[in-house]
Amino acid sequence: MAVDTAATFEPVAADLPLVDETMQRVSEVEFEWLALLVKHVLAASGKRLRPALTLLAGKMFDYNLALLVPMAASVELLHTATLIHDDTLDKAALRRGLSTVHTVWDANTAVLFGDYMFAASAEMVSRTANVRAMRQFAQTVGIICGGELSQHYRAYDWQVTEEEYFRRIGGKTASLFALATESGAYLSGAPETAAQALGEYGYKLGLAFQIADDVLDLTSDEATLGKPAGGDLLQGNVTLPAIRFIAQAGSQNPIRRFLEAGRPADDLAVVLDAVRASDAPAAAMATARRYVDEAVAAIRGLPICAARESLTTLAAFTLERRA
Amino acid sequence: MAVDTAATFEPVAADLPLVDETMQRVSEVEFEWLALLVKHVLAASGKRLRPALTLLAGKMFDYNLALLVPMAASVELLHTATLIHDDTLDKAALRRGLSTVHTVWDANTAVLFGDYMFAASAEMVSRTANVRAMRQFAQTVGIICGGELSQHYRAYDWQVTEEEYFRRIGGKTASLFALATESGAYLSGAPETAAQALGEYGYKLGLAFQIADDVLDLTSDEATLGKPAGGDLLQGNVTLPAIRFIAQAGSQNPIRRFLEAGRPADDLAVVLDAVRASDAPAAAMATARRYVDEAVAAIRGLPICAARESLTTLAAFTLERRA
Description:
2 copies of one chain form a homodimer. Helix content of chain A is 71%, strand content 1%. With 323 residues, chain A is mostly helical. Chain A has a two-stranded antiparallel sheet with strand order 1-2. The A-B interface holds A 29, 31, 33-34, 85, 88-89, 108-109, 111-116, 118-120, 122-123, 125-126, 129-131, 134-135, 137-139, 141-142, 144-146, 148-150, 152-153 and B 29, 31, 33-34, 85, 88-89, 108-109, 111-116, 118-120, 122-123, 125-126, 129-131, 134-135, 137-139, 141-142, 144-146, 148-150, 152-153.
């Protein structure tokens, strides 16, 4: 990763380990095998981008770690729970370089354990004792699930529209980013307009993040991604760069042929070559860049401080990650 | 069912339809196919025992339907969500006489939709704006999932202990009954001792309910159950009557042979005949009866009123249902 997240997270870097410690304590349960499951999924540590967003948003106001740490941990636990179910349904073998739960254990264990982690994230947010945070959390879980269901429902359909795509990634990705930033603000006594601004920042950043992710899935390689390229298309998931490519190529396009032929793995390289040779990936990245600009614009009216600077820098870096 | 639940629920019977209406409104979503899913699972209406428990507990104190209706709806939605995942993992074809979600749609849809209903139940409890209710709700989801995981982990093992069994059903069933009754009490301004008493009532009632259910699964027939008898053993789930039978029959027993042979469906009748010929079912029912007595005893100190009478009657009826 080209981005120095440690530097970007600097205003809250000293406190991020508290979030990790709080998450790890979820593994302190009576059953040894359940503890093993929790440790397994928490060992595959991500960049902790979402918890950092919560702390950075809070840092702009009355920075209260007693509320912000459980909130940040809750957001990351929820993210982890959704990944467990996603990987199980997608039959993905790897996540963050580690074997997925359903491959180490089995699919039924993975479904039940994903449920358990949803519960752990809900219990964690309840530690804020803040009704608004708990309610937004519950609503966000519903929005994420709606986005996932929508993606599942429209899978294998080459005629997915941009409108459907944005509704889907708004649900499955951007809503969680918005929860992370907005809750960080109002849990720290931010004025309502500032909380809304940070919520909008998070939402737009989430859209940009997901678009960049979807472009990389088509244009990058296995060594960089940690999983084979083109995984989205193999799952029948038609993303923005694919939609843009199809719009240019017309109704007789290689993505349609690939999907209608039942997604033969051997034909994937041809599809990827065609997409890469087009300007669809660049067009999608331009859209992501526009959302980054809108995210930064959303918080431009907030007081200048180190945390706001970090959020601004971080937004720009979203497009460069793993590139 | 031999029990006239309408009469038992009498003090709150006029208000139970409000709970149903509130639940049905979950289907008012943008996507028609998601609305169809919600309507499908809510059409298979159960007895609404858990919502009735919440309202009856609240009826003993300052009966506030603005809080009790979303709480009761939340408990029933959570119950529905757990059934969707249970049936999917068990590959069950029917639930309450209707086809299960994974058979009408597919397993992936069922997992995502179960998640969605979990979210709907969490959103519903947030409408109480009561931190204690929201926190107990989240903790209960975790306890239920822990119970389900424990059952899954110990499946196919004929040497499950009674201690393990009670921990499992305490998690997967009794904790939700306790949430239903205890929250009904404290949302209605009950004194803490009364809330605790009603929580204990719910927990003990839940244990009795599950034991009776587990006995019926071994001793009843398909016409009565709405599904084939012996389903638990076919799933490798060794319940209290089975544990009691094994304790009498010794280490060379037909349940062990059945499980070790990979649960051949053709051999199930022999196992069921042996269990039915023993006094293990009656011994398990005696234990259920003891928990009913303890449930009734837990609320004996509360003020005499129609709602308390209903809860007392309802506890006794738990053992007679479908018998």
